[in-house]
Amino acid sequence: MVARISCFVMSGGVGSRLWPLSREDNPKQFHDLAGNGSMLVRTVARLRARPAGDTPVHLIASERHAERVRSDMANIDLAGGRAIFEPSGRNTAAAVAVAALETIAAHGDGLVLVVPSDHEISTDEQFWETVEKGVPAAEAGRLVIFGIPPGQPETGYGYIEATGDGDVRDVARFVEKPDLETAKAYVAAGTFFWNAGIFLFRAEAMRAAFRKHQPDIWDKAERAFAAAASEVSGTYLPLGLYSAIPSVSIDYAIMEHAGGIAMVPASFRWSDLGSWQSLLDVSPTDANANVVIGDVVAIDCEHSYLRSQGRLLSAIGLKDIAIVATADATFVAPVGKSQEVKRIVEQLEKSGRLETKFTPAHDRVLLPGAWRQRVAHWLFEETLPLWSTAGVDERHGGFYEALSFEAAPLMRPKRMRTMARQVYAFSVAKLRGWNGDADRLIEHGIAFMERGRTKRGGWARVLHVDGTIADPCEDAYDHACVLLALAHAHQAGNPDALRLSQETFAFLDAHLEDERLTGFLETSDGTELRRTNPHMHLLEAFLAWHTATGERGYLRRAARIIDLFRSHFFDSESWTLGEYFDDSWKPAAGEQGQWTEPGHHFEWASLLVEFAGKSRQTDLIAFARKLYASAHANGLNRSTGLAYGAVSRSALPLDLTSRSWPQAEAVKAALALEGTGGPDLKPEIEARVGRLFRWHIDPAPLGMWIDRIDEKGRAVATEVPASIFYHLVTALMQYLDKTQGAVIVYQLPAVPESTRTRELSAASNKATA
């Protein structure tokens, strides 16, 4: 009887040696490098081509690529296998442990074949002939690897020294990537083989090897596997448990320590396609031994790899050169040094460049601005009409803190920051051409806010429904929101905004500024932990007042917060922004000191770009990119693509809920970074707007949003908070501005009155009755 072999394809790598084609969001296994399908699809097809025997195929892939994996595998029969998604990369030892655990869970024991997703192999028949030769040794309990007879000395591959002859040989030792002279000696010896990174073993034999040599890895992998969530789309390993597994390769963890390892010499031709040199070696060439792909004109060139995606690439007189040009980056090197592209990638990442992470591709989005019509309709015909009617407390003044999903007001105390944000949102709407009753709403909101003035001229934190003060605390966060609202109200023509702002700035300087001139206190009594969040919103307000007046004094205020960002807020090692600090601006003790919020990373990124444009401190663009990259790499739920509430500085989840405002701030950050000298982020912008609508806006009643989504993509919101309105209005108005290059003016239809308008009026009458 032919043995069942459970196959596992490892597809979690980034393939940085093939940059700029291969990137974090689109690594090499998803590329068609040889003209006959993606590496991943071809690998799965090879495994399914086994002539006889039960052969389920499983994928072990990064959760961030889940959508792409599902798309590529949609029409492929995995013969009972499934996709298993890693929330973070933990190298190959963890992946092999998961493969053994899956097989034990499904079959009790059995043969396991683990293969990389991105290798070039000559024929399916030769591949399986080689694998089947190793089956008897694997069934006997030996760990089996496969060696490639070297055709030339290679310094980029690991080597295996084997003894004996025949189909199965004994492994004497593993050797890491050698220098050129050593590699030549290995080839001459005839007993050394390239390590193909393909493994065959019984699941129980691998479990025994882990328990003997790496019990910590096995125990932690076992706990993570037991807690995995299985869904129709695949199995999702839990981030907290899986991230605790040590990140180490299977070669270091097991193979270099285990005894009795067998090696089967491969009868197939093989390449790991790990460099542009390797692609030159295996790809079809022209008469001069050049590989030419894309719009390329090559004259008098020899043995060169010339690839262009988009623009014309022209070359004369090149020999042994690799040139790879994408829409946003070009790589040039001697073919023999093309392996060293990783040095370029490392330098780009240190500089905060995003070209290593995002791939500009015409097929990722229909057109820049593809969401314009939907965005404009939602803003001007759905949400502004709703919140300018049902969201306004016409009896007591101000605005409601929240609405039910039936557009009924929830009667509760009114926070100053929410009142200010509503004033801000209606001011922005007026400035963008909304023909609603903006002036009255701005005046209505400011009049209610003034009821919350404290005796010292500050603004109280919370008011009762009727406008009497409920909490007189003078909070820096609230004052930042008030200043932001007044700046835009001033621009919108409100006659009181400038006077009120001057009084607020005087209070800020007298009662909320740290007497040591190291930023601002949380509250006027200065008793709480220091936070970056109020400083971020004060920076936002200072920049808004500079825009409103042109006075450089506001930039000087902003510059002091920027100095704090540089010296204390930003961590250069993790590219993260702390939230909680002690009075000396040291990270707070315990979990608070590790707390970071992806949404605030996005907010800071857009503010840094704005300040850089006003101050010419252009080095801040790199900081903005690093914040964006950090939030994107470590702060997103890979199932939904939405930003988590919070993660630690080491990327462990602290709050798995995805709220609507971080998604809006991600749109703003991408808009800000687009055109600053980095990659083309227009596809990323469209994708971010799409996720905001897919998860938060479209499932909600018209004019509303689902504020909270859990880690599985389920709505958990029970109301619609007004405080989020300003995030959404700002982000989507900026999207309309940037995608057309000019401010959009959207006129509501005058007559006939739309059905939706009548519905909103009815809801408003019901709410205010």
Question: What structural keywords apply?
Answer:
single chain; 769 residues; alpha/beta; Spore Coat Polysaccharide Biosynthesis Protein SpsA, Chain A; Glycosyltransferase; 5-stranded mixed β-barrel; 4-stranded mixed sheet; 33 strands; 42% helix; 16% strand; elongated
Rg over CA atoms, rounded to whole Å, is 30 Å
How helix-rich are the residues, as a percent range? 40-55%
Top CATH class of the largest domain: Mainly Alpha
Which stretches are poorly predicted, pLDDT < 50 over at least 5 residues? 362-366, 741-769
What is the SS-derived class? alpha/beta
Which sequence of strands runs across the widest sheet? 6-9-7-8-12
Relative strand content: 15-25%
InterPro entries: 6-hairpin_glycosidase_sf, 6hp_glycosidase-like_sf, AGE/CE, AGE_dom, GMPP_N, ManC/GMP-like_b-helix, Mannose-6P_isomerase_type2, NTP_transferase_dom
Family: Belongs to the mannose-6-phosphate isomerase type 2 family.
Keywords: GTP-binding, Isomerase, Nucleotide-binding, Nucleotidyltransferase, Transferase
Protein name: mannose-1-phosphate guanylyltransferase
Describe the structure.
The chain has 769 residues and is α/β, with parallel strands linked by helices. Helix content is 42%, strand content 16%. The protein has a five-stranded mixed β-barrel. A four-stranded mixed sheet has the order 14-16-18-19, covered by helices on one side. The protein has a three-stranded antiparallel sheet with strand order 21-22-23. Strand 29 (646-648) and strand 30 (653-655) form a beta hairpin. The chain is elongated and about 95 Å long. The model is unreliable at 362-366 and 741-769 (pLDDT under 50). InterPro entries: 6-hairpin_glycosidase_sf, 6hp_glycosidase-like_sf, AGE/CE, AGE_dom, GMPP_N, ManC/GMP-like_b-helix, Mannose-6P_isomerase_type2, NTP_transferase_dom. Belongs to the mannose-6-phosphate isomerase type 2 family. Belongs to the N-acylglucosamine 2-epimerase family. This is mannose-1-phosphate guanylyltransferase.
